[in-house]
Design goal:
Rossmann fold; alpha/beta; 4 domains; 16% strand; five-stranded mixed sheet; 18 strands; 46% helix; Hect, E3 ligase catalytic domain fold; 17 helices; three-stranded mixed sheet
Amino acid sequence: MLYLELYDYDIERLLFVDSIKDIYGLLSRKLSFQKLIMLDIKCLGRDIELISIFLDEMISKTIDVISILDGLSIHTETFYLSRLEKTFFLNKVVKSQEEGKKKTYMPINQLNGTAKEKNKKIGAYCRVSSREQVQGYSIDNQKEKIQMYLELFDYEPEKLTFYVDEGKSASSLKRPAMQNMLKDIENDEIDEIIIYKLDRISRSVLDVYYLLNNLLSKDVNLVAILDNLDIKTANGRMVIGILAIFAQWERENTIERTNDGLLRMAREGKYPISTIPFGYKRDKDKYLYIYEKEAAAIRDMFLFAKSGYTFLEISRRIQEKHEYKLSDERVKNIIFNDSYFGEFYYKDFIFYEIVPAIVNKNDALEARKMSGKRNSVYGEGLNHFAFRYKVKCATCGEILICVPTYKREKHYYYYYCKKCKKRINQTKIVEHVLCDMIQILATRSKSQNLEKRMNKIKRLDKKIKQNVQDYIDDNIDNETYKVAMKQYNRQLKEAYAELSLVEIKNGLSWERLSNEERRKIVEETISYMTIDLDKKDIVEIEYEK
């Protein structure tokens, strides 16, 4: 009962059962419960397939499963995490079967080891923020829970030190008591840390992950009571692995937020890159303006290129005339930089009002042509382009490339012919072909309508419920039950997959579809199309058979 008191369970609302079959009986009588607590995994029996099906049932009904002696738990509020935790349960069953009768039950007061707990130096960390103090979240309550845990698992530590941060935020590890504890860990004065809940350490995933890694490197264990976490167990190692993933996500998210800030600058007309291009200066508000002394050299570069000079020759002439020492590679980069005629390409968008034009676009393109080079600055394969690689130019037969642009808080997506230097907006293409695509999909989906798929799912649900009831009533044996459940679950998964595709094809407007769904519809219906870019009209289209 001390375990139940430690985790604040309502003892008056306990239901006691002896087997899996008893639990199915409770569920069949519509008795609901949120947690299933057992002494150890052996309480579920020895049939690993039956246990696997049973745990799937608990997960589907969001019933948490806890094995006290094994230190295992399944948190059903998170689907993928619960599936991973289920494997730990099944691995424990296999290991228990291998050990066979040699395995003896360990008393609960020896769960974390034997005499090792009697000589440990324990650090107990407690924290409460100013807001939590006002809400009555007390340090005394945390201390009481830690003392109960020590009593429950028969700790007799050589030394017990409480590290208490009162009125301190969890935004970082820079707290007096936390820093003292970290110093003691570094000096090998702590063997194990016990906290009431993992969020007492920090709200930052990076902080928690780095602290746990530091503890493992110093061979210091950490136990979070309410989270049922011990970092030296399988569950604990899994949590550290997950934290590593989230730590990486947090790092990448920081980079993404920085990129979002830079893109916001660009949308405001400010230059978002730290290095200022040759020919420009930047004012205190981060707006570019033309620096005329360098701009004169830029204009001569394009003039020399149009005249057929090599990049090395241009470099030498610029040094002679303007006294700027630029390498031939630097000259080449300037000639092939669209920013110099006012088109600034940044993070998959073209901005027209950030970099003032120093040269005329036609002159710049002519300079590139005369230097024998071709430019290919536009991005390919962008997710917003549903018809990518499907659109040809009627004049030259080239596949059109994808060019996103940004103007006045709006995105525009164009298919552009580099040879003819003409383009068409994706919206125009959608207007031409959307009705045809819908008609093709509607024709194909007559035999797989929504009602038919829904009825199939309902029939499978009914069969699953009947199979469970037959098992409870002893009308079928374990093997028959397991085979049937496997078959029904496989069929149910297939039915839901078919239903998802039917929903895409019936009733969802083009605007409500995701980029991936739009691309899927185009792939299913259109082989290719040829467009007259002068008339902005489709002259030929071939649909998928």
